[in-house]
From TrEMBL:
Homodimer. Pathway: Amino-acid biosynthesis; L-lysine biosynthesis via DAP pathway; L-lysine from DL-2,6-diaminopimelate: step 1/1. It catalyses: meso-2,6-diaminopimelate + H(+) = L-lysine + CO2. It comes from Olleya namhaensis. Specifically catalyzes the decarboxylation of meso-diaminopimelate (meso-DAP) to L-lysine. The keyword RNA-binding does not apply. The modification N6-(pyridoxal phosphate)lysine is found at K49. This is Diaminopimelate decarboxylase. Its EC number is 4.1.1.20. It is an enzyme of class 4 (lyase). Keywords: Amino-acid biosynthesis, Decarboxylase, Lyase, Lysine biosynthesis, Pyridoxal phosphate. Residues 18-354 form the Orn/DAP/Arg decarboxylase 2 C-terminal domain. Its cofactor is pyridoxal 5'-phosphate. Gene3D superfamilies: Alanine racemase (3.20.20.10), Lyase, Ornithine Decarboxylase, Chain A, domain 1 (2.40.37.10).
């Protein structure tokens, strides 16, 4: 998307606004499937939590993706987008048995990550196929908040509890058709991922009726020009060979599954904001914009670094700015960042705004959430209206205080 098109979208739909490029999503999907082309059966399940707009889900379906979901509501979104239940895997954490049973009744693949629910579900529904989420005790991920495979993580069943799993499976006679892991996000070291994969292969040998092995995701995407990223092609070549060898050992072909979210949509997203005020202080120059961590929380929550460009003055002399929001709390997007000279009224574009941006947005400070736009076949389509004050009041109930 060129600056001129982004400026047109800001003029047509206002700011702040999230914009997604369907061409980049498609390219990333094809890049991932191509990396594993030597495996006969590959299943990509898009992680809905990254970006859950129904139009984006329909695009994923068009590409041939399934869905990875973590809540009943995400499952319902997937069904509303036209996905068949058998193409949806449900991988929750800490939810009630009732929610899992509700999703199972819809026909989705169930993925269970704790012994208690495994035993309860297996006792009541022994014929329902179940995948088991393993915690490989491998520390991976770019931030402690998104590293989920280590020993202190709440996610998955410890590899040291395999005997307990086998006891439950034997006692309930339940049907285990998949083994799963997810070690964390922003994984860069391929060898760490391959090491965790070996743990999963070893675990899989305990189950004789598997249909698939799910390796999660968490691939690192670049956040700026020249930034490091997961070498998905090298990883695909190495894991594909090992997976094919394992299938021969196992005695039948299995499906290799992944559940990418950020990898597919992060780079496709741009977030446009308007500069309200340029404020000079004794120590810095602030560019204060019409947004805050209510719309883009990742820099404050994870310390993520998003590229920021002044698309109103792209050729201007670069100066140093601290880009901050309008929330009544510290909400800093960037400190002392080199950006083309900024004037009040300019439009700034944040890169890598496709994943975990709108989906983590809120109405903090009673601010409305922005619109979403999908650029498909070169044309901008509004896929979510900007919220209004009426939307904020919609579910509130005034009581008569006398």
């Amino acid at each position: 998307m060129q600056n001129s098109q982004l400026l047109d979208i800001a003029a047509d739909f206002g700011s702040p606004v999230y914009i997604y490029d369907a061409d980049i999503i498609t390219s990333q999907y094809q890049r991932l499937t191509s990396a594993f082309k030597s495996v006969d059966q590959v299943k990509i399940n898009y992680a809905v939590k990254a970006l859950s707009n129904i139009s984006v889900l329909k695009l994923m379906k068009q590409l041939g993706s399934g869905l990875d979901t973590v809540s009943l509501q995400e499952v319902q979104l997937g069904l509303a987008a036209g996905f068949d239940a058998e193409n949806i895997i449900f991988t929750p954490n800490g939810v009630s048995l009732q929610e899992i049973e509700t999703v199972a009744e819809l026909g989705c693949q169930i993925n269970i990550d704790n012994l208690s629910i495994l035993e309860q579900f297996g006792t009541k529904h022994p014929k329902t196929p179940v995948c088991i989420r393993i915690n490989p005790h491998v520390m991976a991920g770019g931030n402690t908040n998104i590293s989920v495979g280590h020993i202190d993580s709440k996610f998955g069943i410890s590899i040291h509890q395999i005997p307990h799993i086998l006891r439950i499976v034997e006692n309930t006679k339940m049907n285990i058709n998949g083994i799963h892991m997810h070690t964390g996000s922003d994984i860069l070291d391929i060898d760490v991922f391959l090491y965790a994969s070996e743990i999963l292969f070893e675990t899989a040998k305990n189950f004789k009726s598997l249909e698939f092995i799910d390796f999660g995701s968490g691939f690192k995407v670049p956040y700026s020009a020249g930034d490091i990223e997961t070498n998905i092609e090298e990883f695909g070549e190495k894991l594909s060979k090992r997976f094919n060898d394992f299938c021969e050992e196992y005695g039948k072909p299995l499906t290799l599954a992944f559940e990418p979210g950020k990898f597919l949509v992060s780079e496709a997203g741009q977030f446009l904001v308007n500069v309200n005020v340029v404020k000079q202080t004794t120590s810095t120059v602030f560019a204060q914009v019409d947004s805050g961590f209510n719309h883009l929380i990742r820099p404050m929550l994870y310390g993520s670094q998003h590229g920021i460009r002044n698309i109103s003055n792209p050729e201007g002399r670069e100066r140093f700015y601290s880009v901050v929001g309008y929330i009544c709390e510290t909400d800093t997007f960037a400190n002392n960042k080199r950006i083309s000279e900024i004037n009040e009224g300019d439009i700034l574009a944040f890169s890598n705004a496709g994943a975990y941006c709108y989906s983590m947005a809120s109405n903090y400070n009673s601010r409305c959430r922005p619109a979403e736009v999908l650029v498909y076949n070169g044309e901008a389509h509004l896929i979510r209206k900007r919220e209004t004050f009426e939307d904020i009041l919609h579910n509130q109930i005034e009581i008569d205080l006398k």
